[in-house]
Amino acid sequence: MSTKKILEFSSSGPSIFCQFLQHLAKQHGWDLQYECHSDFSLELLQNFDIAKVDMSFSEEILTLMHVQPTLVRTVRCLDSLIFEDGKWYPRLLLHEALRRVLVDNARDLDIRVPAFVIGESEVARTVASVFAEVGFGEIYVVGQSAEKLSAQMEILKRGHFGIQFHQLLEDELTIQSLSSSIIVNTVDLTNDKTLLNDLSYFNFMKRDGYALDLNLLPFQNPLLEEAERADLRVLHPYIVSAFLTELWLEKLQMGTSLKVEELRESWKSFLKEISPSV
Known about the structure:
By secondary structure, the protein is of the alpha/beta class. It has helices at about 15-30, 60, 70-75, 95-105, 120-135, 145-160, 195-200, 220-230, 235-250, 260-275; strands at about 5-10, 30-35, 50-55, 80-85, 85-90, 115-120, 140-145, 165-170, 180-185, 205-215, 235. Strand 6, helix 5 (about 120-135) and strand 7 (about 140-145) form a beta-alpha-beta unit.
């Protein structure tokens, strides 16, 4: 197998995802090279096959990319750069991974009632876009800043006609009396006990609804534990990561014999190994 070269742009150092790819490569004897840079540069892409991009770089990168796939142009963010047909293209692979999770693991998801996404970042915007694609007509986006939420609303409404997007401040969560069928959290709740407590009421959720937290660590996820106590059905973040890894391996043309079920088990073992003790 030829050497595959991965570049990552991340201001906070190597991501858990890229750490896992290196772990997987070591397990299977793949020739994988990896570099991480804290600042984005088009020149750095030379001699690499694929790049992992922290979504916070999206606006900076998209101003430099003249050719953008429809999805990236609609959601206005990316999580990877892929070299195809002699050119670099921005991609949003998380979108497809999330869609597959909902289709495969939440087949009875009730799209007739609202969906909730917690966060005001590009990741939250991606989740809201997936909700729109799978058929939700009403989507609530929850955050701390009215200004940041308004900016998200503008992009989402421009890209998804006919969908009702609502912005909701975090301190208004406990007074909602809705009946949502799914909540996806994108916020790190480690040091935000107030938000964790407010979410844990789940007063806005249907009894048989779904809960997904995209934070991979800690493995013993406090929000999902509370969701189980509230009789919600839990979707663990490693399920999303398994689908995302499958997409990456397809793009890299390596490890294609690995099934998503195997990747899910590998992710579980890896996260348990690196998860901080509670």
